[in-house]
Amino acid sequence: MEEKINAATEQKINAAQSAAGEYFKQGLNCAECVLQSFLDMHNVDLPKEIIALSSGFGGGMGHTKNTCGAITGAVMALSALKGRKDPLAKETTKERIQEIQQIYGPFGDMIREIEQQYGTLICKELSAPHGDFAGKERKKNCKQIISYCAGLAAKYAEK
User: Fold this and answer.
1) Three-state helix/strand/coil letters over the chain
2) What span, in angstroms and rounded, lies between the C-alpha atoms of 68 and 16?
3) Dihedral sign, CA of 96, 97, 100, 101?
4) Tens place of pLDDT for every residue, the chain, 159 residues?
5) ∠ Cα 145 147 151 (to 5°)
6) CA–CA distance, 147 with 24 (Å, rounded to integer)
7) Cys staple from 20: which of 27, 80, 125, 150, with CB 3.0 to 4.6 Å?
8) Whether the Cβ atoms of residue 126 and residue 72 lie closer than 8 Å to each other
9) Separation in Å, CA 85 to CA 71, 97, 99, 100, 149
10) CA distance 88 to 19
């Protein structure tokens, strides 16, 4: 069943997709593109240097072609808004575990939606049909995935 998205959310999704694609054209890696576009759109209380946390995830984690950097960027982006600011705020370990279990829901839903769209979360598998990392077709494919993941992060931020 397809969920209905309101016009304001649709506009945010489109803006995130566009911004992430533009960042890719400017030389940011896949994870950086998704996170930076998200940070641009949301008022999160984090320093701008937070983008550094995403740098190592490009190219499927350090260019090893493992988990797609656009996907890890989407998780980091959503975490910037919906993640715990103080994981030790709850008094007991049991309360901390219960809290994080409640937080996981939208993250798991977003990842399942990406996997349903592409059939995999692995950079190597996402890019294999499109040739060399430096090739034009590969870059076009990566830009599309980056835009999609940025849009999903924006969508799940609204939930």
Assistant:
1) CCCCCCHHHHHHHHHHHHHHHHHHHCCCCHHHHHHHHHHHHCCCCCCHHHHHHHHHHCCCCCCCCCECHHHHHHHHHHHHHHCCCCCCCCCCHHHHHHHHHHHHHHHHHHHHHHHHHHCCCEHHHHHHHHCCCCCHHHHHHHHHHHHHHHHHHHHHHCC
2) 18
3) negative
4) 456 789 999 999 999 999 999 999 999 999 999 999 999 999 888 898 999 999 999 999 999 999 999 999 999 999 999 999 999 999 999 999 999 999 999 999 999 999 999 999 999 999 988 877 778 899 999 999 999 999 999 999 998
5) 115
6) 9
7) 150
8) no
9) 21, 15, 12, 12, 23
10) 34
Residue type for position 110: M
Write down the residue that tokens 């409640």 correspond to: 102
Write out the two tokens for 3.
């969920």
- What is the residue whose two structure tokens read 């988990």? 67
